Amino acid sequence: MPDSVYRKLQEHLNQLPMGFPPTESGVDIALLKKMYEPEEAELTLALTPAPQRADQMAEKMGMDPGSCKAKLDRMGKRGLLITTTVNDERHYVLAPYIVGTYEYQINRLDKEYTDLHNQYMMEAMGLEVFGGKTSLFRIVPVEKSVESVQEILPHDVVKTKIMEADRIALTDCLCRLKSKAEGRGCDHPVRTCLSLNRCADFFIENDLRAEEITKEEALAIMDMADREGLVTQTQNSAGDLDYICNCCKCSCGIMATVVHLGLHNQLTKATYINTPDLDACTGCGTCLDRCMFKAIRIIDGKASIHPNKCMGCGLCTTTCPEGAAKLTKRSPDQMPDVPESVQAMYDRIQAEKGRPQAFHSFTEIQKTGIAD
Ligand code: SF4
Ligand code: SF4
After folding, report:
1. Is the ipTM beyond the 0.95 threshold?
2. CA 10 to CA 32: how far, in whole Å?
């Protein structure tokens, strides 16, 4: 089949708020060819952000409904689309590359794929993800670091999100698996990421290395992440969340890019900043090792914080032997403007980029029953 189906697929994906830009080198097409078989590319051209049943897709494609359903279900397991249940029926949704089919390649990582992905990130997708005004991601402070903070905002308490979730799935960290596939890897645990509610269902029903866990088990994962010095990252939403990632700069593409290129402003900060008690600080430097954003220096024997680099993750506070490192709320003019929901985040990104297609979050689909 000619390359044209893959060019059409690139253009189709590029309609979304978080798109799939073309490249001069053609690595965008090479990446799509690696991920999608030609027939899968054709089927994806018929997918939309609005969920569709297999029989609707079959009618569009002129296919036998049973055969169409089998192909769509296989694509779900290959991480090429989103499945969700609407009115007790399985529906299929067009997935963006990030956050989407890239993260869903969890069972298909090999060196060829990761090389293509890395080249594509450098040439085009990095700018697509980090070049906009509204971030896809935000840092959430580690639970223990904000227990004593006055007037903590509800969306900064991960525990609340976990306790409110109907279902939680524990999944492997795609970034650490990818880094291992590249022959790098790090010693941090792999089983660290949480998916919530419909996103949890999606990971479990498509065998994307996920298992349902209890709220207590999820809270234990968050404690483990703190011990391991992992930064908690979620969608840039004050309301619903689909996932909670626990990231390290050794393997996480987002963290590594932010730290190495100094793109701290491209990641929405937490509401808090480390303001160490200088009387108590002994300048021991323990916090330097904990801070993956290079926000701390020791000056004249005391910890000094770079306000633009501190992301308010709180990791420095939980191991400070003197209890000197502590989070306080940023001033109102420095507070991040966090969208009220995942849908509001995507709507903002769509408006900022002038993209023709909206993207519907798992929550929005359930709330409104959006379907073709
Ligand atoms: S770990 Fe605590 S005591 Fe040590 S330098 Fe950092 S803030 Fe100061
Ligand atoms: S100083 Fe570093 S470790 Fe501490 S809250 Fe800020 S970013 Fe996190």
Report:
1. yes
2. 8
Q: Are 59 and 372 in contact (CB under 8 A)?
A: no
CB 75, CB 67: distance < 8 Å: no
Beta strands in the chain (DSSP E): 82-86, 89-93, 137-140, 168-172, 191-196, 210-213, 231-235, 243-247, 272-274, 296-299, 302-305, 327-329
Which residue lies with its CA nearest to atom 2 of ligand 2? Answer: 291
Same domain, 151 and 61: no
Name the closest-CA residue to atom 7, ligand 1. 325
| Domain coverage including residue 32 | 4-97+109-119
Same domain for 149 and 113:
no
* pLDDT digits (tens), the chain, 372 positions: 557 999 999 999 999 999 999 999 999 999 999 999 999 999 999 999 999 999 999 999 999 999 999 999 999 999 999 999 988 999 999 999 999 999 999 999 999 999 999 999 989 998 899 888 898 999 888 877 776 666 666 667 788 899 999 999 999 999 999 998 888 878 899 999 999 999 999 999 999 999 999 999 999 999 999 999 999 999 999 999 999 999 988 888 777 777 777 777 667 777 899 999 999 999 999 999 999 999 999 999 999 999 989 999 999 999 999 999 999 988 888 888 899 999 999 999 999 999 999 999 999 888 877 766
Q: How far is the CA of 306 from the centre of ligand 2 (A)?
A: 9
Whole-number Å distance, alpha carbon 313 to ligand 2 midpoint, is 5
What's the total number of domains in the chain?
A: 2
Domain contains 352? no
Q: Assess if residue 372 is contained within a domain.
A: no
Specify whether 143 is located in the same domain as 90.
no
62: domain CATH number is: 1.10.10.10
Same domain for 114 and 140, yes or no, is no
Residue 359 covered by a domain: no
Mark whether 198 and 267 lie in a shared domain: yes
User: Strands 82-86 and 89-93: what pairing?
Assistant: antiparallel
